[in-house]
Amino acid sequence: MWEGEMNGSLSTVPLVVGDMAVVQDSSGSIAAFDRDDGDERWRTEASGFNIGPFGAAVADGRVFGGYGSTGIVAVDAETG
User: Fold this and answer.
1) Could you tell me the pTM of the whole model?
2) Residue 25: exposed, middle, or buried by beta-carbon count in 10 A (0-12, 13-18, 19+)?
3) What residue ranges do the domains of the chain occupy?
């Protein structure tokens, strides 16, 4: 078992993407953790004023999430 730390609270469950667990927190930050040992693979930084709820989506090798109060961000699922 392992635990991962985020900057803000979570409003959704993590997404399983291959061998990673991906989550977006209430600060707007998105992070990917190794499913086996919990090591952080990558993390994005939030931008601007963030209004939730937040939750990531995955498609075509990308992770999508809220960015600021009116935007969306897409990052590579493997590298962030």
Assistant:
1) 0.84
2) buried
3) 15-76
